[in-house]
Amino acid sequence: MTTLLLLGTSLALLQNGLVVGAILFSLGLVGILSRRNLIVMFLCAELMLQGISVSLVAWSRYHGDFGGHVLVIFVLSVAACEAAIALVFVLQAFTRTGRLDSSAWQSLRETTLDRSIDHEIPSLDTSMPSFPRLTPAGRSPDTDEQAGMQREHV
Amino acid sequence: MTLFVHLFAGTGTFEFLSPGILLAVAVTCLAASLYLLLPKSGRHGKTSRRVGWLIGLITLGLFIATGQRLGNLGDEAVFLIVSLVAVVSAVATITCRSPVYAAIWFALCLAGVSGVLLVLGAQFLGVATIVVYAGAILVMFLFVLMLAQPSGLTTSDRITNEPMLSAVAGGVLLGLLSLSIGRLSAEEPLCCRPPSKAAALGAATVEKIPTESVDLLTSDQVARLGGELFGRHLVAVEAVGILLLVALIGAIAIVSNGLEGSQVETSSLHEGSRS
Q1: How far is A48 from chain B (nearest CA, A)?
Q2: How far apart are the C-alpha atoms of A121 and A27, rounded to whole Å?
Q3: Is A37 helix (H, G, I), strand (E, B) or coil?
Q4: What does the pLDDT look like over B15-54, one tens digit per residue?
Q5: Does A26 sit within 8 Å of B174, measured CB to CB?
């Protein structure tokens, strides 16, 4: 592990880590802007937090102190609090509307905005996913309906 | 501009590809592939998803080409593999139609992120990410999904709000961030701005704290991280403890209040639920 960890010039490692963090952050941003399921939106927020954590640790490695590590620990604990409170809110929203859709709450929108209506909803993909199947082997057993009703053991 | 294109430097035929152009192409490809991958209304769902994954792979190749070389081939391979796992499963997280699958892809993304943290030398955080996120937070998400998800995919999982605009926004943000990351250089470290700037901000007595640049990778790293956490940041640790307690009490209070009052306001929300 030590040979693995002593890699590279520090600046190159910093830049690569920052790029990975930036990619994760922007992906989370795209998700939180476009998805409509409340729980997936919170997953995307967690994804943005992961990007931040990677960037902080990269800076910490570059400067050689523990400040970034300590910040990431605080980010982790605040994320745990946030997830607990947010999931309680999501459950409340679900019990009131029966849906996990964020547009179920669009009566809270600004008064100047129009109401968003889903015009074309894509058809449901009705084809079943291909589960693996066992090939039948041997003869089918005789079924005794009377025996099926009673149990041998408790 | 210190973004190197070592991959193309030797060949000479690609010299017209400056790193800026490569970056612009990569960001455009990323936005296009995210737009194709996001669930939206349209007939050619499966084809557009395949094309989206293809363009996404090209994007990843471009980002790898513009990235910095770490020097050692094995190190590069390890970093590349863990970051590819993280990024690809992050894309799958935001584009998956089923929320349960999205949560499971997010778990894989966490595994990749903890690998990146390990490569960057944060052993404790790499393990803590797996334990806290994948072990606790993600399981909580899955519990709520089991409680609240109606069977099958709802319509809101099959369409997205403004997939084009949000993909463009993400691409623009990533392009700006990568540009400024590429401009970082060792000659002008960001930590040591000239003191005139600090004085202009009103902090006349800013002294550079003599932090010796410690080697993070020694074997007693976790012990020293604990010393740092409970020494210099003790008050913050206490504050975080109080925050956790408040969050716990608040969650319980909201749930118990909501159970009493959940029948009250359902009539006012009928406009929303009929959409």
Answers
A1: 10
A2: 24
A3: strand
A4: 556 778 888 888 999 999 998 888 877 666 778 888 889 9
A5: yes
